[in-house]
Amino acid sequence: MKLNYFAFAIPIALFFIFLEFFISKRKGKDFFNFGNTIANINVGIAERLGDAFITGIFYYFYEYLYLNFAIFNIKPSAIIWISIFLFTDFIWYWYHRLAHEINVLWGIHIVHHQSEDFNYTVSARITVLQAIVRTGFWSILPILGFPPSMIITILLIHGAYPFFIHTQLINKLGVLEYIFVTPSHHRVHHASNEKYLDKNYGDVLIIWDKIFGTFIEENEKPIFGLTKPLNSYSFLWQHFHFLLEIFYAVKTSTGLKNKFKIIFGKPERINANIREGLEKIFLFRNNSIPKSKRFKNYVIFQIAFILIFLFFFLLFENYFSLVVQVGVSSIILVTLINCGAILEQRKWVFYLEYIRASIFFSIIYIYEPYPTTLFTLSVMLLLSTNYFSLLQKNYLILVYGHPDQQP
């Protein structure tokens, strides 16, 4: 069978997340907030889903550059493996630093820093756009002459390490603190304390921060998240709020030079009041998550179902037609939006249930295009339309405990 074994990254990551959760609880540490944890996992699911469609493209992109523009003909050897690792980590440092210093890049990277928790789920907050931008930076590797197979291998190894530095359970690690990026170093990077801002950009090695003057040791308790907290669990808002802020800042500025400075300048060039105005237009905020077990169980059930769904979808992706791939991806994305909206107690989540069901039944009809199937689906549609108000009311009571939510 032709299986995609990268799918096993999902259960492996979940194992360490659960392990961290149980250890933190036994130690009496409150490192996991329900809403933040769901929001973090949501972003990670979207990234895993996107990777299913574009990871192969990255390899062919590197191969194209290697075959057509390689400066040197580099052959694998022990010293070459060490060299590509150092090059990769060096390039990451500068990508990461520029992602904090250039607005258009920060608009993509900011998603990784929104969580006010710091645990293994935060490592999942990577977007597909961020993966695409990083590929642009790493494209120097095939141009130098490193073979694509070496690049992909080292990127997989390099990409696994940062997962383990997103934790508060591990304290300082002695002599390793002088060479590698440790959880202590990375806690500093995710902190919004003024003294910690724009520090410790390294991914595996901390030496680049020490060389280029961006290193600081953890010596006061970090406050995690953005300097101006997002205070929203909305899946879409988390992904696009800063890009929207850039757009409105450019739109309201005068002169090409000023617009250019907004796009490629530092984040502090964006007027903080812009977000407040956009929130009034696009965002309904209600962070008072119901404490009932019924509510939390419903959200957890959706996330658990999607993770299982995603695992098998990725594992057997080579056996699914394009129709199924698009349909499954659509169901997953609608569910992610649904979970974010539920956390903010939006009333329109009921419409998302209709959309999700419609996609699911459309896939069924494509594979079972028989009159009985069409008749059954038509009856279900007729009944759900006729009893829409009653269904909506009971659904909101079931999920929130009462039907009186904002639109």
Describe this structure in words.
The chain is an all-alpha fold and 407 residues long. It folds into 3 domains: 5-212, no CATH class; 235-282; 293-400, no CATH class. The chain contains 17 helices and no strands. It has helices at residues 9-26, 34-69, 78-101, 103-109, 128-138, 140-144, 148-160, 183-189, 207-212, 235-252, 256-264, 273-282, 293-315, 322-343, 349-367, 371-386, 388-400. The model has no long low-confidence stretch (mean pLDDT 90).
Write a short abstract of this structure.
With 407 residues, the protein is an all-alpha fold. It has helices spanning 9-26, 34-69, 78-101, 103-109, 128-138, 140-144, 148-160, 183-189, 207-212, 235-252, 256-264, 273-282, 293-315, 322-343, 349-367, 371-386, 388-400.
- Give the proportion of residues in helices: 55-70%
For the record, the count of structural domains works out to: 3
Mean pLDDT: 90
Oligomeric description of these chains = single chain
N-to-C CA distance: 48 Å
Which stretches are poorly predicted, pLDDT < 50 over at least 5 residues?
none
Q: Briefly note the structural class of the backbone.
A: mainly alpha
Kindly provide the radius of gyration, computed on alpha-carbon positions and rounded to a whole number of angstroms.
23 Å
User: How many helices in DSSP terms?
Assistant: 17
Residue share in β-strands? under 5%
The biggest sheet amounts to: none
In total, the number of strands is: 0
- Silhouette: globular
Order of helices and strands: HHHHHHHHHHHHHHHHH
